[in-house]
Design goal:
The complex is a heterodimer. By secondary structure, chain A is an all-alpha fold. Chain A contains 13 helices and 2 strands, in the order αααααααββαααααα. In chain A, 48% of the residues are buried. The chains are: A mainly alpha, B alpha+beta. The interface between A and B is medium-sized, with 28 and 32 residues.
Chain lengths: 360, 556
């Protein structure tokens, strides 16, 4: 990301370079600064995932289902994160007979990689943004789509029929729901006129309406709630959560593409899935919820941003607890016959409205 | 849906034939008569089984093949077809088919009653009678390589059975379709799979995601329950085992099946007070069993341990606590005794009544929650309505009973149609749904919980006012029971999953010579291919969930 797109002012690597005095080292300094920035962002996400996976997911589901969940290890059971890390990493890695080795190993690596890569262009507030290319939104969508490749690699290389079914379902669902997702995203671009993430955020800063002295910002979720709803639904499908968890569908195809993975690979897959949920939330927040915007000083941006991606995580967990899963054919049907039509209708309608507004 | 309506006052209109009329109907087919305690028995030639069964089915209306019992005598083998009428199960008839001692071959009844398929395979597997004209006579409970037939007289118990790993290391590997037919995929669902509710193996052939063919492979949980019972004395040693057949909290219902058969056999009258306690306990068990059925069905459709599963478990727990107070146990109750129950309600009685009433009071609210979360959920309706369709005639042909039959509009409930206990004194209704699909079976269970609650409430009222001096919990039963030689009886009760029947034959000793369990799940599971073929894999799973099988009862 340093090659094609020069570092812009105010980006995280820039700040790091300034702080550490790396400017003097030329391109090498840029590389080091960029890597340090990426390291920082990745760790921020990993910490979020550590809370989300072994702890928050249990606690949230337990709250929904009348249980208590982890409460023995540490305050509020928080140390279960450490215990789980040790437990999962110390498990035996079972390699199934007949697994297609390089592909079987690469799959679990691709999933967290693709999700993390998407965060490279997300403005997380408080100056935390690695890069801000002009094609930012396209980059985020493209990066998160790489996961599909990982899923089909895992499904195909596991030498297991359940994995194969899961892999095929994953691809079918990603194709069916990525188009409505991106088309809905494009309807926001019609307003902003740019794919650059920072510009999209900036476009939402203006006041939309003012009710009783409280200024409601021009977040696209308020401007076009229909698009927001479409986007969230497609997003839930994209990250494979209930009611669209067809690729995993534990009661039908055991665990889908991840059936044969244990130990570290299991951790990597789950890590990837959680970061993916956060990425889904991050894109939704950037496009529709003003990115890191929120009351208080701009320095609080990261706090608001984190709250927004966690809100999306909470939504997925809520759906998981309460909504039944669709059948695979119904799921695909809704994707192609419902979501796709609606998202194009939304796009055309938005285009007309924006066109009329700009000519006035 | 234009499925035929069950006749509202069916039992009254069913024509009953006397034993002699039936004998006349069967004419030359009958070569002898037997008298079973529950029904007249007609001995027929082993090569005329189909003719006799179809005459009884077509001309006399015996449309329910409840059970096939096989046994070996010193001079012959014998298969007994226990026939009933769905419209009036008190009308029973036994078709007794003797087979040659040296060459036990008997005609299969599968052409008339499809349920005979599995029942005869079991008879072949355990006793060793061969059924001519059977479409697929293989072992069903034991592995193919098993030597001998365990319930036959000459079976060597002590002989080690070598079941070589070579042959069983991966019985799943064979993909027998791949050569002729490259469009389908063979998939093993189970024996260990999140949705098989135990160790069940479904040999599935998929065409894309659609089920082209499915065959259940059972027997993983076979524990020789019939033989265990044959080794126990009537009086005390058999009663603990029924709890272990359908162990999903249906314990008292199972115990009642044995109690009813044994009490009728030994002519024991159960005091009314004990009958009321039994009825109350049994219905608590039914609620607990249905709660779990609904919860796991939701689990199969929802996908994870979600809210509805936990809510169902939460409410089942309350029923379980009351049962614990009553019986002292949570899983293996062992509460019934021949002639009554083991002890009276727990003291202080008021506390027990209050606890039970609280449970019944909270129940409508809980059920409301289930209806909100499951039955009125659009996605669940999309998933379950018109999937896993089981037409009533097919259900009858497979001997389906319980919520599975009632979900197909078959108005059949032994509690009402063949009354026992205190049921005929109480005010309650049999629940049926005409949808024949997964959704109907779910609704039947949810509504049956309400009916059970009604029954329990009435029992509580009765027990509260029962005069202290009349609280007899057990009849006077001899220390050792030795029914007369060659007494035979087949009796069934309405278990949580359907008709749970026991056949017993005495040989004059204090242990039954043959103890046969007619498991409702065994017959119900047979309908799975009918429901699932042509559907998607998720609907196969949903259909399996809606059958609510317990492998402990299927395999016994």
């Amino acid at each position: 990301m340093t090659g094609a797109v020069p570092l812009q002012q105010g980006m995280l690597p820039d700040t790091i370079a300034n702080l550490l005095g790396l400017d003097a080292f030329g391109i090498a300094g840029d590389v080091v600064a960029a890597l340090l920035g990426a390291f920082l962002i990745a760790n921020f996400l990993l910490i979020n995932t550590a809370f989300a996976g072994p702890w928050a997911k249990r606690k949230i589901t337990a709250a929904f289902t009348d249980r208590i969940a982890v409460n023995r290890i540490g305050p509020f059971g928080l140390f279960v994160i450490v215990a789980d890390a040790v437990r999962l990493l110390s498990k035996e890695l079972i390699v199934p007979e007949g697994a297609d080795r390089p592909a079987w190993d690469l799959g679990p690596l691709l999933i967290p990689f693709s999700a993390l890569l998407g965060f490279a262009v997300i403005p997380m507030g408080s100056g935390l943004q690695l890069a801000d290319p002009e094609t930012g939104l396209a980059f985020a969508f493209a990066a998160s789509s790489i996961a599909s490749l990982g899923l089909i690699m895992m499904g195909y290389a596991s030498n297991n029929k359940y994995s194969l079914l899961g892999g095929l379902r994953a691809v079918a669902s990603n194709i069916a729901y990525e188009i409505p997702l991106i088309v809905t995203g494009v309807s926001v671009v019609l307003f902003t006129g740019t794919l650059q993430m920072s510009e999209i955020v900036a476009a939402q800063e203006a006041t939309f309406v003012s009710i009783a002295g409280i200024a409601i910002p021009q977040w696209f979720a308020f401007v076009n709630p229909f698009a927001f709803a479409l986007f969230v639904v497609a997003n839930v499908a994209e990250v494979g959560r209930n009611p669209f968890d067809i690729p995993e569908a534990p009661t039908e195809i055991v665990a889908g593409y991840q059936t044969e993975y244990s130990s570290v690979y299991f951790v990597l897959i789950y890590l990837g899935e959680f970061i993916h949920i956060f990425l889904g939330g991050a894109i939704a927040a950037t496009l529709f919820l003003g990115g890191p915007a929120g009351p208080g000083p701009a320095a609080l941006g990261i706090v608001w941003f984190t709250a927004k991606i966690w809100a999306f995580f909470l939504l997925t967990q809520w759906l998981r607890s309460a909504v039944p899963r669709l059948r695979v054919d119904q799921f695909i049907e809704i994707g192609w016959k419902g979501m796709l039509v609606l998202s194009f209708a939304n796009l055309v309608l938005t285009a007309v409205i924006v066109g009329v507004l700009t000519t006035l | 849906m234009s499925l035929e309506e069950p006749e509202p006052d069916a039992p009254a209109t069913v024509e009953e034939q006397s034993a002699d009329e039936l004998a006349e109907l069967l004419g030359d087919h009958v070569i002898g008569r037997e008298e079973h305690l529950n029904a007249p028995g007609y001995v027929v030639r082993p090569d005329e089984v189909q003719a006799v069964l179809s005459t009884l089915k077509e001309d006399a209306g015996y449309d329910h093949l409840s059970c096939v019992t096989a046994q070996e005598y010193e001079d012959r083998y014998e298969s007994i077809y226990h026939l009933k009428k769905y419209d009036d199960p008190t009308q029973e008839v036994s078709v007794v088919v003797p087979a040659d001692r040296e060459n036990p071959v008997s005609q299969s009844g599968e052409a008339v009653f499809r349920t005979a398929d599995w029942h005869e395979r079991e008879a072949y597997d355990l006793v060793g009678i061969e059924y001519d004209d059977h479409p697929d006579l293989r072992r069903i409970l034991l592995p193919e390589t098993w030597q001998g037939h365990p319930l036959a007289e000459d079976y060597e118990q002590d002989r080690p059975q070598v079941v070589p790993l070579r042959e069983h290391a991966n019985p799943l590997q064979e993909d027998h379709r791949s050569e002729q037919d490259t469009d389908t995929m063979y998939l093993n669902i189970g024996p260990h799979h999140p949705a098989t509710h135990g160790v069940l193996h479904l040999k599935t052939v998929l065409d894309g995601e659609q089920v082209a063919d499915v065959e259940s492979d059972i027997g993983y949980l076979h524990r020789c329950e019939e033989q265990i019972c044959q080794n126990g004395t009537y009086r005390h040693q058999i009663m603990p085992y029924p709890d272990r057949w359908d162990y999903i909290s249906a314990g008292l219902l199972n115990e009642w099946a044995y109690a009813r058969a044994a009490e009728d056999m030994a002519d024991i009258d159960v005091p009314e007070y004990a009958q009321v306690i039994r009825t109350m306990g049994a219905e608590l068990c039914r609620i607990a069993a249905h709660m779990l059925a609904v919860g796991t069905f939701a689990l199969d459709v929802y996908g994870d341990f979600t809210a509805i599963f936990m809510y169902a478990i939460r409410d089942r727990e309350k029923a379980q606590n009351i049962l614990e107070d009553l019986t002292g146990q949570r899983l293996m109750f062992n509460y019934f005794r021949l002639g009554g129950v083991v002890w009276d309600l727990p003291e202080p009685r008021e506390e027990f009544f209050e606890k039970t009433r609280d449970f019944l009071e909270d129940l409508p609210e809980a059920l409301e929650e289930y209806h909100d979360l499951i039955s009125s959920n659009e996605i669940l309706q999309m998933r379950t309505i018109d999937t896993g369709v089981l037409p009533p005639e097919v259900a009858k042909s497979y001997g389906a009973t319980g919520p599975v039959a009632r979900g197909s509009g078959v108005d059949y409930d032994l509690r009402r149609d063949d009354p026992y206990g205190y049921y005929d004194e109480l005010d309650w209704d049999v629940v049926t749904e005409d949808g024949c699909d997964n959704y109907s079976r779910l609704l039947v269970r949810l509504r049956e919980v309400e009916e059970s609650a009604k029954i329990i409430e009435q029992c509580i009222d009765l027990l509260e006012d029962w005069p202290e001096e009349d609280r007899t919990i057990q009849a006077n039963v001899p220390r050792t029971l030795k029914p007369d030689d060659d007494t035979e009886i087949y009796r069934a009760v309405e278990g949580a999953k359907g008709e749970l029947g026991i056949y017993m034959r005495s040989d004059g000793t204090d242990k039954p010579a043959r103890f046969k369990i007619r498991s409702p799940c065994f017959s119900n599971l047979q309908t799975l291919p009918e429901m699932a073929e042509g559907e998607y894999v998720p609907d196969l799973i949903a259909a399996l969930g809606s059958l609510d099988i317990v492998l402990g009862e299927v395999d016994r």
